Amino acid sequence: KQKTAYEISTRDWSSDVCSSDLAAPASAAAPIAYRGDGIIIGPGDAPPSVVVLGDSHGTMWAHAIQVAAEEAGLKTAFYCIGGVDPFIELPPRRDQTVRKMTAAEKYDYDLARIGNIERWKPAIVIICARWAIIKPGTAEPLLTFLQQHAGRVVDRKSTRLNSSHEWISRM
């Protein structure tokens, strides 16, 4: 039986959602973090100035991004789930099913990401994805949305920077 995101244990969630690579309290990896603020790392009550959207590549880069953001004093929200495309159809659809999430969970995940980016207006959004498998036209709606609601978008496809330290330091 395929587990839903809600049913994934903290151990499973940690391997599929970037929490295993982050220095965050175990509660930050709660199975419902995907439909809230994601996993937020950093001090203070201010909204995150960096948002990371990713699939397994986001989980792979999570720790490096966290270290660079902390060194720059930036609060960061992570929305990274292995096997789940970081791109959002706009408007979100209720009928999308993906590995590890039901259609309702995917819809909640999309709404949380969109709503928080609109509310937070982050200075930086980092997209970490396996670009080779992204279908043409999939990224454009999200990128257009981010142009209106975020300061700068950085992705591993278009940048020649070699590390997250370079990404953050150039922001």
Structure description:
The protein is α/β, with parallel strands linked by helices and 171 residues long. It contains five helices and five strands, in the order H-E-E-H-E-H-E-H-E-H. Helix 4 (140-149) links the parallel strand 4 and strand 5. The radius of gyration is 15 Å and the shape is globular.
Quick summary of this structure?
The protein has 171 residues and is α/β, with parallel strands linked by helices. It has five helices and five strands.
List keywords for this structure.
33% helix, 5 helices, 171 residues, alpha/beta, disordered N terminus, five-stranded mixed β-sheet
Give the arrangement of secondary structure elements:
Blueprint: H1 10-16, E1 39-41, E2 50-54, H2 56-71, E3 76-80, H3 103-120, E4 124-128, H4 140-149, E5 152-155, H5 164-169
Parallel strand pairs: 2-3, 2-4, 4-5
Antiparallel strand pairs: 1-3
Number of helices: 5
Largest sheet: 5 strands, mixed
> Helicity, in percent?
25-40%
On the 0-100 scale, what is the average pLDDT?
Answer: 79
Tally of extended strands?
5
Low-confidence stretches: 1-15
